[in-house]
Amino acid sequence: MTIAEESSTLDLKIVVEGTELVLTVHDRGEPVSGPSPRLLALVDLGFMTAADGHIDDGRNVGIVRLALPAHSRLVSDEGVEILDDEAPLSSAPVTIRELVVDDAPALARCIYRCYGWSYPGVNLYYPDRVAASIESGKRIGEVAVDDSGEVAAHWGAVFVADGVVETGGTVTDPRFRRRGLANDLGDRLLARLQAMGVRGRMREPVLTHSATQGIALREGAHLVGVHLHAMLPIQQVGITNGMTDDRASLTVMYSPLVEMQPATLWIPGPFEGLVRKLLAPTGWPRQFGVVRTATEAPPQSVLGSSYDAFNRVGLVEVFTVGDDLIDAVDEAVGQLRAAGADVVRVHLPANQPALPALGAGLSALGLAFASLLPDFGSFGDALVLQWLRDTEIDTGGYVYASDHVKEITEAIVAQVREVGAEGDRLRRRFARRQRLFAALPNDPSA
């Protein structure tokens, strides 16, 4: 870290957040676009749970998270039976109420009874992590509990941006099915979100299960993208034949919970066609700006990045589009690739007029379209791009709730393959050019 002035100071803040020790450093040195390669290497090796670097209020911000002992404490499966769909139905009464901190162990046991160790939302197996997120207000939920306090059903939500939640973690103990508990919990959760003033609701149904996609669509959500290879391989009881060979891919659904305000989208050419296809059936008040080559922008982009070593996913967030956008994004993505990321997603502010001109070359960096997230916190509308280490996507296990989901998924997969193939062509062209240069006379003494 470079300090620009002798009078500059480093501000270090150390706090405990749930199951993690969080160290935050502020300085006014040379602007950063992400955590240093050394920090990323420590995250990849498991010495840290996460690292983040960005600029806030004119100062660099570096954040590292270290796991406390409770962070790695799994729920105990002692005496907890994994149930299948043939488990006899129970007539025991249940109480429906809000999820509270003390429910965390019982929720983890419910997940285990239903899925064993195969549930993709792995954080739910760690009661201390769940309890901390409930206590902080980041996670809310509705549960049905029996007289002993065991969770029979759950539907939850996690805040992913200011005013936006991702709902999920929907589970019902097989013994308590056929009571409509999931519907009751879902209705209660939706009413609660609306009362809290939440503006938007995201869902990410897997591409191996059309039923969960269909539920979201029937409840008024619209498809806004597909995040390919988003998670480690998963096993879905009754759906997949054991553990999947490839990383899991997710559809991204969005439904506004309040009236959306009109906005203008500024989308780089390689991605505009997909955005138009996604928005066509929504009726949302969005128009496309006319791209101009001469657009005012600051000389430097403002961005930050972070790395999730468990899922091997990197995230780059561009807050301000500047003249150096291509170089800044390329550097940030390159650092995350070097750290071991299999997937890097880039969030771009889609309401900034400079984006189409300055971002026209983003696909040449190996970035393909992922999603458009409306009214996504401080971004406004966020254009999300994705880089994949493995661009040969196996779609053999994908199932689709509608022709529209199928069409969009196939178009995104095609673009990922195309940018991957173009990258291969460029590397080979450069290699062939070097071979030609090697044939030229070379006198070291000249």
Q: Rounded to an integer, what's the Rg over CA atoms?
A: 24 Å
Q: Please give the largest β-sheet.
A: 9 strands, mixed
* Terminal-residue CA separation: 41 Å
Low-confidence stretches: 1-5
Q: What's the architecture of the largest domain, going by CATH? A: 3-Layer(aba) Sandwich
Quote the average pLDDT.
89
Sheet with the most strands: spatial strand order = 1-2-4-3-14-15-16-18-17
CATH fold field value of the largest domain: Aminopeptidase
The domain count comes to 3
- Can you give the helix content as a percent range? 25-40%
Which structural class should the secondary elements be placed in? alpha+beta
* CATH homologous superfamily grouping of the largest domain: Gcn5-related N-acetyltransferase (GNAT)
Helix and strand string, N-terminal first?
A: EEHEEEHHEEEHEHEEEHEEEHEHEEH
- What's the number of extended β-strand segments? 18
Overall outline: globular
CATH class of the largest domain: Alpha Beta
How many H/I helical runs? 9
